[in-house]
Design a protein that fits this description.
elongated; alpha+beta; 4 helices
């Protein structure tokens, strides 16, 4: 592993071995992120073992966030579904058509789970596509 052998505080005083690069207990690689390093490991450990739902992921992020800046699930759900509802209603009122909405993997996972009928996690990776239709009244999630 490359990296500095010791961490230093803001005055340059050595504080112990650096953990700027390494591997978690679960075998995944990680890179240190300063203040947020412990939070990221706590989230990874909390979510290890199964495909987590967007609700579980946001809860783990919020539990690890010492700054209080993490948006909770209900707030994120209302914001995202409200935005999608507005986009779709406006498009529908102009005769319909296709709309491409691009967002983060977590936001798309949250939308797919919130609009779908399943309580199970929607497993997504970055750059995955989720097809959602709107008939003027109801959203339908179509798994790809």
């Amino acid at each position: 592993m490359q990296g500095y052998p010791y961490r230093t505080d803001h005055r340059g005083k050595q504080r112990g071995k650096s953990r700027s690069h390494g591997q978690s207990e679960h075998g995944s690689a990680w890179v240190g992120c300063g203040y947020f390093d412990g939070e990221l490991r706590a989230v990874a450990d909390a979510l290890a073992g199964e495909e987590p739902t967007a609700h579980a992921r946001l809860a783990a992020y919020a539990a690890a966030d010492k700054t209080g800046m993490t948006e909770n699930y209900e707030s994120a759900r209302q914001r995202l579904t409200g935005a999608l509802q507005t986009i779709c209603e406006e498009t529908y009122s102009h005769g319909g058509g296709n709309v491409l909405v691009v967002s983060s993997e977590l936001a798309v996972q949250l939308l797919a789970e919130a609009l779908g009928s399943s309580e199970k996690a929607v497993a997504l990776k970055n750059a995955d596509v989720v097809h959602i239709t709107f008939d003027g009244d109801v959203f339908t999630v179509h798994p790809q």
